[in-house]
Design brief:
Layout: E1 4-13, E2 16-21, E3 24-29, H1 32-35, E4 44-53, E5 58-63, H2 66-76, H3 83-92, H4 95-104, H5 108-111, H6 118-127, H7 148-161, H8 166-174, H9 183-196
Parallel strand pairs: 3-5
Antiparallel strand pairs: 1-2, 1-4, 2-3, 4-5
Helix pairs in contact: 2-3, 7-8, 7-9, 8-9
């Protein structure tokens, strides 16, 4: 099992990045919560990892904090939840927000995450009740792009990581009040707009 990687980011395209470690480029899928905290390509970063072995592929998932990785691993134990749904959930809400949903048995925020229907949300609330712990840390902060580049990164994240169609992503971003927002702010405001619908 590969527990962590430390290397240089050579490419970033939400939700995937390539991390060069000792001359080997590892393709790593990361939730948006981690992706938005990453430095620009060319910088070094340490990620905690989880390797999923399937018949047709070995997929490496990366996380900025132990809390995120722990939640990802616990989500994989829930019947009907695979890595794709677990990644979408971590991209759509923080570890703290998920813990609140489970503790308060709230379906609404879970069903707003693309790929999670009512039945899956109900199963998550039941099966995760005993597995949710209070988060102890968060991903470290890093610089984020601004202006048009930030909006484009937000669009990529909404489509590639969160499962929105390009048309939906465009509509959600247009609903955001124009300004010099960071990528994270564009995504947060777009998701708030979706939650109000």
């Amino acid at each position: 099992m590969i527990g962590s990687l430390f290397g240089r980011i050579t490419a970033k395209s939400p939700p995937q990045l390539t991390l060069e470690v000792g001359g080997v480029g590892y393709e790593v899928e990361v939730p948006m919560s981690t992706f938005l905290q990453l430095p620009a390509a060319g910088h070094e970063v340490r990620l905690l990892t989880h390797l999923v072995v399937r018949e047709d592929a070995h997929v490496l998932y990366g996380f900025g904090s132990e809390d995120e990785r722990r939640l990802f691993r616990n989500l994989l134990k829930v019947s009907g939840v695979g890595p794709k749904i677990a990644l979408a959930l971590l991209s759509g809400m923080s570890v703290e927000a998920f813990a609140r949903c489970v503790q308060q048995q709230e379906l609404g925020p879970l069903t707003r995450v693309p790929g999670i229907g009512r039945k899956t949300a109900e199963r998550l609330l039941i099966e995760m009740r005993d597995r949710v712990v209070s988060p102890s840390s968060t991903a470290g902060s890093a610089g984020t792009p601004s202006g048009r580049a930030a909006e484009e990164e937000a669009f990529d994240a909404l489509v590639n990581a969160l499962g929105y169609s390009p048309a939906e992503a465009t509509r959600l971003l247009k609903a955001v009040e124009p300004g010099k927002h960071s990528t994270e702010e564009w995504i947060r405001r777009a998701l708030q707009s979706a939650a109000r619908e």
